[in-house]
Amino acid sequence: MKKILKYTFVGLMGCSILTSCLDSALDTAPTDSMAGTTLLSNANSAMVPLNGIYRSMYTSWSPTDNTHQSFGISSYAIMADVMGDDMIMDDMGSGWYWYDCLYNVKSRYTSSAWRSYDMWNCYYTWISNANYILAAQETMSGTTEDVNYVIGQAYAIRAYSYFMLAQNFARTYKGHEEDPCCPIYTEPTVAGTAGQPRSTVQKVYELITSDIQTAINKLTDAPAQKYKTHIDLSVAYGIQARIALTMEDWNLAKTAAHNAIEASGCTVLPVSDFLGLNDVTAANVMWGAPIQNDQTGMYASFFSHMDAVDELDVSQKPYGNSARKQINKDLYDNIMLPTDTRKQWWDPTNEESERGADAGYQQEKFKFSDYSTWLGDYIWMRVEEMYLTAAEAECMLGDETAAKNDLYAVMSKRVDGYTTSKTGTALGATSSQRTGSLREEIIDQRRIELWGEYGRIWDLRRLHQGFRRTVAQGWPDAALLSNRPTDDAECYMWVLTIPQSEFDGNVNMDLSKDQNPTGDYK
């Protein structure tokens, strides 16, 4: 028990029963001398394991050769963006994210050095550690508010983790409720705990929705957010809004998004007030990680992959220089309005790209706050997302006046005099098939606003849209995927395979029956 409850984040076991294998990489306090039961006996000391979970959300942790693209929440946002149509990878560079971009990871499920292994184990470790905290809720001492603060966050972490597993290891919720998803664990696990079979998408989402509502109930009667890294009431509402959007529960998505806006106290900012997107103290940031000098991760970090640092003459530039992240030129040239102040987030001159005019437009949205020390905060949720979520939900509910008002809340700070007369909810079968609807307009602004932050493929999946990459958009030939069914929203291209180690360690999982398709179709 003592070893389990050190709450650290390496030496991961390849099955869902992870906590018995955790060693000692991410201790956030000198906990070696404290038994697990002592740590969880009161709300104050329970913050130690809770803080450990949060630190693993922004620290490079992978125990294998995948370290430099496995640094928690922000690493998976890049993965999900390069899998879509809007974030172009100019070149292979050192190889990080290139195989995600090319959809060339699923067949490698037997290796611990590839995406299936790190993502599966990351989220199940957060679930496992959250379960240990939740198991102590009846005996944890402290004021009601302090206990709620700890327990509410643990429920939210578990909900968020299962939500991300469902989005990546199964097809999207609507229309696939009876598809196999992932095993469910709601109790503490040890080395001898029997592995569980895959539950259906419906069953997993029932747990997700229950957990996030319980988190909200607890956090309603809890102290205010003490650290931007920690999930408070507003962030829990924000996670609920994301879940409801994916489930197409439009009423809940609208309500949760508005609740998140109100509870956060955050305001939409002009682009000029949060350049670089590297400061969690900005007034529009709801959730993120303030990165300290000893926590940067250097090459294994978000800004290392995003910022090309062309303006500096340095001998060792980050990965973002050799594997440049660029915007789809069609999105920039033809969808973004000419007067949109977000245009400054990208450089259309392509002066530094080896592909020149053939390339997409280099990103300048995400910049180190201090390259000499590899600093830059990670932003995981902004209030602008909540307005756009509410707008889409209201559009789907037929309340176009409310939808436009929420859309204007963002766009009035992006385009002077912005207005739209669009109406309707129609979307094309692919993102390049245009309908001119209001919902499409809202999604377009979401694509621009949340580029690099949310993960485009997750939106494409819930929208049941395919896509096509083209040379005209700026994609390199190697990444066009022209012989792959990216235009088929029902295919299995973007459903990750389950790591072999799960089947090796779980008697209730059968490789021949329970593995996701290694190809594009079942």
Report on this structure:
The chain is mainly α. It has two domains: 210 residues, Serine Threonine Protein Phosphatase 5, Tetratricopeptide repeat (Alpha Horseshoe); 263 residues, Alpha Horseshoe (Serine Threonine Protein Phosphatase 5, Tetratricopeptide repeat), CATH 1.25.40. It contains 18 helices and eight strands. The chain has a four-stranded antiparallel β-sheet with strand order 1-5-7-6. Strands 2-3 form a two-stranded antiparallel sheet. The longest helix has 26 residues. It is globular and about 60 Å long. The N terminus is likely disordered. InterPro entries: SusD-like_N (IPR033985), SusD_RagB_dom (IPR012944), TPR-like_helical_dom_sf (IPR011990). This is RagB/SusD family nutrient uptake outer membrane protein.
List keywords for this structure.
Serine Threonine Protein Phosphatase 5, Tetratricopeptide repeat, cell outer membrane, 2 domains, about 40% helix, mainly alpha, two-stranded antiparallel sheet, 18 helices, TPR-like_helical_dom_sf
Summarize the structure.
By secondary structure, the protein is mainly alpha-helical. It has helices at residues 36-39, 43-56, 73-82, 98-101, 115-134, 144-169, 201-220, 233-247, 250-264, 302-306, 319-322, 329-335, 383-396, 400-411, 438-449, 456-462, 500-505, 511-514; strands at 87-89, 180-183, 198-200, 285-289, 325-327, 346-347, 361-363, 378-382. Helix 8 runs antiparallel to helix 9 (250-264).
